């Protein structure tokens, strides 16, 4: 069969002939791959730069952690790969499969799960979102941030605020459910002043942060209390696109009712991961099939993977390859 292969030493994946994967355990199924999203996660793991990768792979491997597949009986499902998914066939976990509604296309079904899990796990389980909450999505113009805007509104948020660098993308957030947007321009004083006004008017209850770095420092400084009672804030770090480290004042931690936590692989208990497959993803697929959850995709052939691997895709749009 044909597949994209990452070879030791890094570089771009190559489209080549490989052996068909074999089932190794009872909890595996061989499936025909229909569509696979190209995500930062997969690129990071493939290069060894993601925190879940201890080092560069020592042998050639097929990238891609999940995708849309056909089972032997023709059932169309989303599945998590045992073998790499960027191939004509892959082995997938029997207990990490979600059926796909007929009204949902392969590309959207392949692109949604990473964004949905990246948004919903933080909102539902880490921040424990409640009806009436005010939610700030820091870094809302990317694929996961846009999904987070929509899910925050669906889960009952009274007010949703989104930040981002691209003004055109920011304006599009309003149609997805955002009430307010703040541009990240590098002008710290302006960013902080805009957020202070919003926080004073409608205190922020939840922050889902996909950027970290300097904007996280500014947001936390706005949340800082003045010695009086403060409203509880659940701050969830879900990404670090702007940097892995911040300076955090101890005074902030002592002056506000702040819960600071992270959402990502390794931070989720087993029961929450199970709910992602039994509750969160089935619900998200249904919403998308009904046109109530939107995500833009660009499709391309897996055979062009070397050219596509570093392709600059417009913000809010996910690249999906078709074997």
UniProtKB/TrEMBL annotation:
Domain of life: Bacteria
Gene3D superfamilies: Medium-chain alcohol dehydrogenases, catalytic domain, NAD(P)-binding Rossmann-like Domain
Domain Enoyl reductase (ER): 11-295
InterPro entries hit by this protein: ADH-like_C (IPR013149), ER (IPR020843), GroES-like_sf (IPR011032), NAD(P)-bd_dom_sf (IPR036291), Zn-ADH-like_protein (IPR051397)
Molecular function, one GO term: oxidoreductase activity
Pfam families, per database record: ADH_zinc_N
Protein name: Zinc-binding alcohol dehydrogenase family protein
């Amino acid at each position: 069969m044909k597949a994209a292969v990452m070879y030791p030493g890094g570089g771009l994946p190559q489209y080549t002939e490989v052996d068909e994967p074999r089932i190794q355990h009872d909890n595996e199924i061989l499936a025909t791959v229909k569509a696979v999203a190209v995500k930062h996660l997969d690129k990071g793991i493939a290069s060894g730069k993601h925190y879940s990768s201890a080092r560069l792979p020592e042998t050639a491997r097929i990238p891609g952690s999940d995708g849309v597949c056909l089972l032997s009986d023709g059932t169309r499902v989303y599945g998590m790969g045992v073998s790499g998914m960027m191939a004509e066939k892959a082995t997938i976990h029997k207990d990490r499969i979600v059926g796909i509604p007929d009204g949902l296309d392969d590309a959207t079904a392949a692109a949604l799960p990473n964004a949905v899990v990246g948004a919903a796990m933080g909102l539902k389980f880490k921040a424990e979102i409640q009806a009436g909450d005010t939610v700030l999505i820091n870094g809302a113009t990317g694929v996961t941030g846009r999904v987070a805007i929509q899910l925050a509104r669906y889960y009952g948020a009274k007010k949703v605020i989104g930040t981002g660098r691209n003004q055109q993308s920011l304006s599009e957030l309003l149609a997805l459910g955002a009430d307010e947007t703040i541009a990240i321009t590098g002008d710290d004083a302006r960013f902080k002043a805009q957020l202070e006004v919003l926080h004073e008017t409608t205190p922020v209850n939840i922050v889902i942060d996909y950027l970290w770095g300097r904007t996280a420092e500014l947001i936390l400084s706005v949340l800082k209390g003045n010695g009086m009672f403060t409203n509880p804030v659940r701050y969830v770090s879900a990404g670090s696109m702007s940097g892995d480290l911040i300076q955090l004042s101890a005074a902030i931690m002592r002056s506000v009712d702040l819960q600071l936590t992270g959402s990502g692989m390794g931070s989720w208990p087993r029961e929450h991961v199970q709910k992602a497959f039994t509750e969160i993803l089935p619900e998200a697929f249904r919403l998308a099939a009904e046109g109530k959850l939107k995500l833009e995709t660009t499709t391309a052939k897996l055979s062009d993977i070397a050219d596509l691997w570093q392709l600059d895709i417009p913000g809010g749009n996910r690249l999906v390859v078709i074997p």
